């Protein structure tokens, strides 16, 4: 049976500067990739050379049928030293925004997607409250230069992942495992969202502003409710509460996380469960579960700003996204205001500590020649975008 989505539903794909641009040597991730103590399996290097190849990439997305493109600013290019702003770097992003408009794509701009300039991390990074002010100052400058062309804005991508993986689990920079630092980073990122939101709002342009959050289908088994609730409170709910009153909320989900009674941390995936190249459980049901919670707790219109799967068999991507979209449709049928879906990702790209191994792209990238080849899933999802219908 065919599913038709609401009129004006926004279909897009997403990327992040550091994962696709190449040569972003002035941020904390570049340092982390080159640190032999880090768990990184690759360096980002040239990534997808999207810094130079964005015109063809954006044209390809439009040809495929997409209506929107979500990408991020690289803070360390725009503000290479504290208070020193590069007009040439800002002009680069102006050209990217203009290129989206020329091709009929709504540009969705993320101001902070995981990477922080070297100077800001040398000054304490996210455990230093000043970093929140620094991000807001950057957002104010960037919006002055770009605001008239922005279609939608995300302040911070997954602040909950920046704090958890950087300051508690130690797999993202700065690689710390310290409960106090985790709490401080969470608080500073929450404040940074508010300040950045206001900074963007005070500039030119009139577009929706919100945050995006990494969410999962949290489940308790055999009496693990208290553990689950506790973890979900710091990992999700404090951010959902903070997003109340924003213009929209960006939900991003990939899998489910289960908690048992004895452990405050998630259970490892059991043998026999179907997993993806990220080691996540194959769980497209996470979209429906998290969108329902996000809508209930934020009261805001919802965009799925990321969802997808890292896999080598492209048929699995179509299977995964189909199930996710069916769940999204059940939410819409129940009256939840879901306005868009952005597949992660446009291109096979640099998946942080996992390097180039997981393949999240709708479009394959030859790592030697940078040649782009749309996968069957790119044509399939592009057709859904064109017709606003899943058949
Ligand atoms: C994130 C980021 C993306 C990832 C994606 C796949 O959500 O972690 O926004 O940068 O690449 O989620 O893991």
């Amino acid at each position: 049976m065919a599913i038709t989505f609401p009129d004006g539903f926004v279909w897009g794909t997403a990327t992040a500067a550091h994962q696709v641009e190449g040569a972003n040597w002035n941020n904390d991730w570049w340092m982390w990739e080159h640190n032999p103590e880090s768990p990184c399996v690759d360096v980002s290097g040239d990534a997808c050379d999207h810094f130079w190849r964005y015109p063809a990439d954006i044209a390809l997305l439009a040809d495929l049928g997409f209506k929107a493109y979500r990408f991020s600013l690289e803070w360390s290019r725009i503000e290479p030293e504290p208070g020193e702003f590069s007009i040439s770097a800002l002009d680069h992003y102006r050209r990217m925004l203009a290129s989206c408009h020329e091709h009929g794509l709504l540009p969705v701009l993320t101001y902070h997607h995981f990477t922080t300039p070297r100077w800001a991390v040398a000054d304490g990074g996210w455990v230093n409250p000043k970093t929140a002010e620094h991000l807001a100052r950057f957002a104010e400058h960037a919006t002055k230069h770009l605001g008239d062309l922005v279609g939608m804005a995300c302040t911070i991508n997954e602040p909950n992942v920046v704090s958890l993986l950087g300051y508690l689990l130690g797999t993202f920079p700065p690689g710390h495992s310290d409960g106090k630092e985790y709490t401080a980073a969470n608080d500073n990122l929450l404040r940074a969202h508010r300040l950045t939101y206001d900074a963007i709002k005070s500039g030119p342009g009139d577009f929706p502003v919100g945050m995006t959050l990494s969410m999962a289908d949290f489940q308790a088994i055999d009496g693990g409710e208290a553990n689950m609730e506790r973890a979900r409170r710091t990992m999700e709910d404090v951010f959902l509460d903070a997003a109340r009153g924003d213009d929209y909320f960006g939900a991003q989900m990939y899998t489910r996380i289960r908690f048992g009674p004895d452990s405050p941390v998630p259970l490892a995936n059991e043998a026999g469960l179907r997993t993806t190249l990220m080691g996540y459980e194959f769980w497209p049901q996470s979209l429906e579960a998290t969108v329902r919670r996000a809508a209930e707790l934020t009261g805001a219109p919802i965009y799925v700003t990321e969802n997808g799967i890292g896999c080598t068999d492209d048929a699995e991507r179509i299977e995964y996204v189909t199930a996710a979209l069916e769940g999204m449709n059940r939410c819409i049928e129940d009256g939840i205001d879901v306005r868009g879906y952005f597949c992660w990702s446009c291109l096979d790209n640099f998946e942080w500590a996992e390097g180039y191994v997981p393949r999240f792209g709708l479009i394959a990238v030859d790592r030697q020649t940078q040649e782009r080849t749309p996968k069957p899933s790119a044509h399939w999802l592009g057709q859904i975008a064109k017709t606003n219908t899943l058949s």
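The chain has a mean pLDDT of 97. The chain has one domain: 3-390.
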